[in-house]
Amino acid sequence: MQMNRHLSRRGFLIGAGSAALLAAGNAATHIEPLVAEDSPASDIESFRLTGKPDESYWTRLREQFTLEPGMTFMNNGAYGPTSRFVTDARRQMDLEMARDPRDNFRTAELDEVRQRLATFINAEKDEIALTYATTDGVNIFAVGLDWKAGDEVIIGQHEHFDPVAAYDGLEQRYGIKIVRVQTPSPPQSEDEVVSVYEKAITPRTRVIFVSHVTFITGLRTPIKQLTELAHRHGALISVDSVQSTGALRIDVKATGVDHFASGGQKWMLGGTGTGFTYIRKDLQPGIWPRNGYVADETGRNATARRYENTGQRNIPAYVGLATAAELLSAIGTANVEERVLQLAGRLRQGLSEIPRVKLWTSTKPELAAGLTTFGVGSLEPKDIMTAMEEVKIFGRPVNETDVKGVRVSTHIYNSPDEIDRLLEVVRKVASGAA
Asked: Which pLDDT score is estimated for 22?
């Protein structure tokens, strides 16, 4: 599926008419267009790969992102920039709906979005529900289970507080027990991580809730092994995958996970206010919808769409998300993962060679992805950030739980040169020169 092609079939193309409409709007409000008129004309097909990309390919791809000139952005672990493809697709759908508002639900378009996202993670379309964010997807699963007092959920110390709040509420409402475990930072092996959860499992364990990649330290959790552990003990596994979807290859069938939640605004580079969740088809009858859709005797609502009764959807945003998935698929998810790990590996290797630097993220490829968190001696995160921002390198300070440092993200729009510039800044900070 290519979303732009589908929209063209509906008789609306970005062309002279829409360009005039945009120009008129900009003239009236004095807003500069998002994309300059002389920007490189391209389409997703021109980025489809049959072999391995070279550095010139990644440079050409970078031109499709409208970051400020000179900015080295390394915080898509919080929010990733959208490409021209995504902004154009969102704008095109927005203009089409303004032109012809008779179909405000756009069920055909949303069905194509579900199919694109299902293909992206190797799921079935009927196992995908569109959500507003990762936290929304986590809540669908957590709140939808039938809980009894004393039921247990295992949660690590570095999980994001927003999704965890779902289980905090269940603890107060139903008397479930949250079992909090401590994973090493960084661990020495996948087995070391699995053993932490294995020691915490009891006959009362209902769910293991875990991030595929943790947002604080960037630990890449061995999801397949934890899924097998949960299932051996009759428990379910729920995965927050917002820090891996779009950076790593995702195959929900291969890992066997029961539930998976992600958002479009981070590594997928799909824009804010978007997300999707996967619930294994055979489990759906036991996961109650929050907003009243249940399957009836005719079989209506007998898919993950039962979890989408949330009112009017932001159709352009979901079209943008599907376009982001299409771009990543054209590049090749294996090529994307290789690039992300290559850049992150270059950064972590360089950091490991600088005196006074502490790496909170593992240097082992199987235990890390695109997030890297590091500290410099006893310096405050804000001081390291100040030195970075002086040369327009932007990351995220971390001062949570037991971790103190700076977190940076390395994605497909970054370059080896940007990694080297960051390493030079850290060397100066570590030597006391900054």
From this structure: 39
- DSSP per residue, 115-163: HHHHHHHT--GGGEEEESSHHHHHHHHHHHS---TT-EEEEETTS-HHH
351 contacts: CB under 8 Å, gap ≥ 6: 357, 359, 372, 374, 423, 426
Tokens of 7: 């929209």
Give the gyration radius of the chain's Cα atoms. 22
Give CA–CA dist 324/202, Å, rounded: 41
User: Alpha-carbon dihedral of residues 230, 233, 235, 238, nearest 10 degrees?
Assistant: -10
Model pLDDT for residues 135-147, shown as the tens digit of each residue = 999 999 999 999 9
Evaluate whether 271 touches 264 at the Cβ level (below 8 Å).
yes
Please report, for residues 112, 161, 269, 366, 410, the alpha-carbon distance to residue 196 in angstroms, rounded to integers and kept in the order given. Answer: 41, 20, 33, 17, 29
* Model pTM score: 0.89
SS3 203: coil
Helix 134-144 with 161-174: angle, nearest 10 deg:
20
Q: At what angle do helices 16-29 and 84-99 cross, to 10 degrees?
A: 90
Give the whole-angstrom CA distance, residue 76 versus residue 343: 14
Given a contact cutoff of 8 angstroms between Cβ atoms, the answer to whether 325 and 82 are in contact is no
Residue 422, token pair as written in the block: 């960051």
Rounded to whole angstroms, the Cα distance separating 342 from 360 reads 18
Give the whole-angstrom CA distance, residue 262 versus residue 72. 25
Tell me the sheet residues that pair with 73. Answer: 394
Q: Where are any strands of DSSP class E within 8-117?
A: 72-73
Written as six digits, the tokens of 312 are 């009017």
Does 82 or 42 have the greater pLDDT score?
82
Q: Are 371 and 409 in contact (CB under 8 A)?
A: yes
Residues present in the chain in total? 434
Please, where are the H alpha helices in 286-380?
Answer: 315-331, 333-352
Terminal alpha carbon distance of the chain: 50
Higher confidence at residue 44 or residue 302?
A: 44
Residue 108, judged by CB atoms within 10 A of its CB (0-12, 13-18, 19+), counts as exposed
- pLDDT tens figures, 405-418: 999 999 999 999 99
Beta bridge partners of 181: 156
| 241 touches 211 (CB < 8 A) | yes
- Rounded mean pLDDT of 15-44? 44
- The yes-or-no verdict on residue 241 having pLDDT over 90 is yes
